[in-house]
Amino acid sequence: MAGSDDDEAAAAAALAPIHCLPPDALRNVLLRLTLRDAVACRPVSRLFRETLTGPFLALLPALRLLLLRHPRPDGGGCLHAFDPDRRRWLRLPFTAFLPHQAFSPVASSASLLYLWIETAPAPLTSSSSSSSSSSPAAAHPPKALAVCNPLAGTYRLLPPLGSAWARHGTVLAGPGGVVLVLTELAALSYSPSEGSGKWMKHPLSLPSKPRSPILAAGARAVFALCDVGTPWRSQWKLFSCPLARLTGGWAPVERASWGDVFEILKRPRLLAGAGGRRVLMIGGLRSSFALDAPCSTVLILRLDLATMEWDEAGRMPPNMYRCFTGLCEAAAQGSAMPAAPVAGGNNKVKVFGGDGKVWFGGKRVRGKLAMWEEDDVGSSGGKWDWVDGVPGYGDGVYRGFVFDGGFTAMP
C-alpha cells in the first residue's frame, strides 16, 4: 500500500503545471520569490530541491533581519529575528546543524553569523570534582568562536582563543570573512585569505577603552569612541583605524568645524549607517551642558565619511521617549507627572542595529521596541515606529544587531 501511495503522489506531482515548464522558465518564476519563500519551497518536491540550490539562492536578495541576542547562552537552540519588511517575528533553529546547545550571537557579515559557543569542559576526576564549583573554569566555561550560515545549515570553528577574549572582547565582522576581536588593550584579527589559520595580535594605542566600536565596510576602517575626560566628567572623542593598519594606525578623527558635537550627547554610541559609508552616533540629547543635566530625548547624528560633515539624522518623538523614562507608566498609574524630564532617563535605553536601522529597548518598555530607519535623502529625519510582540525574556531588555541572511557566503 505504501508503494501505491507514493506512485499516486508522484503521478499527481508530475501533472502539476509548474513541472511542465522548461528549465529556463521555471528558474524565471522562482527568481521572483523572496529568499524566505524560496527556502520554504525547497522541501516541496525533488524538482524544487534540485533547482533551488545554493548558487541559485545566492541570486536572490538577502533577507534583512534584526537578530536578538538572548541574554542567556542556553536559549533553547533557536534565536528570534524580526523581518522589518513583513513586520513578522521569526525563529531561526540551530539544533539541526549546530551540536553546541549553548551559544550567543555577536556579529554578522554577508550571510555569515558569528557565535560564541560553549565547548565541552574536560572530564572531572574524583579528586577535582569537589573543588570544581568554586574554580574559575566552572564559572566561565571554555568558549570558541564559530562562524555559520543558519539558512544553509553549515558552520565552522575559528582558531581557538583564550577565555578572556570571550568575556571582554567585542567581535566585529567584515567582508571576506575578516574578524576582529577588540579589548581594552589589544585587538585580534583573523582573515581566511591569509592562509595562516592564526589570529594576529595588534596593540591598541588608544587613550581609553574603545566604546561601541564599529566596522564601516564601505570605508574599510574601524571607528570607536574613547573617553578622554576626567573621572568626574566624560569627554568623548572619535578614533578610527584602517583595516590594513591595525597596528599603529589608530588616530583621532576631528575637525575644527565640528565644534561641540560630542558634548551635546550623553552616553553616545556608534552604529554603522546605510551602505557602510556613514557613521551614526546615538545618545541622549542634553538639556544643558550641566554635569547632571537631564535628557529631553534621543538624538541620532550622522557623519558622512565622504564629506566628513555631521548632520542630524533623527530625533526620537517626545511621546515615544517618555515611554523609556517611565513617564507613560506613571501616567497610566495615575501618578503625578514630573515637570522636567527624568534625569539620566536615556541610560535606560539600549541602542542596537546597523546599516541604517536602529532599534531601542528598555526596562520600562516591555514587549516592544522603538525602531528608526534612515532615509535615503537624509532630510526627513528618518522613520520612527513601534515594533510589538517582541519575544519576552523576563526583564524586557533586548539587544541585537542586523543580519543579512542569504547564500552569498559560506563558512
Automatic annotation (TrEMBL):
Classification via InterPro entries: F-box-like_dom_sf, F-box_dom, Kelch-typ_b-propeller
UniProt domain F-box: residue ranges: 18-53
Pfam families: F-box
TM stretches of this protein: none
PANTHER family in alphabetical order: SKP1-INTERACTING PARTNER 15
UniProt name for this protein: F-box domain-containing protein
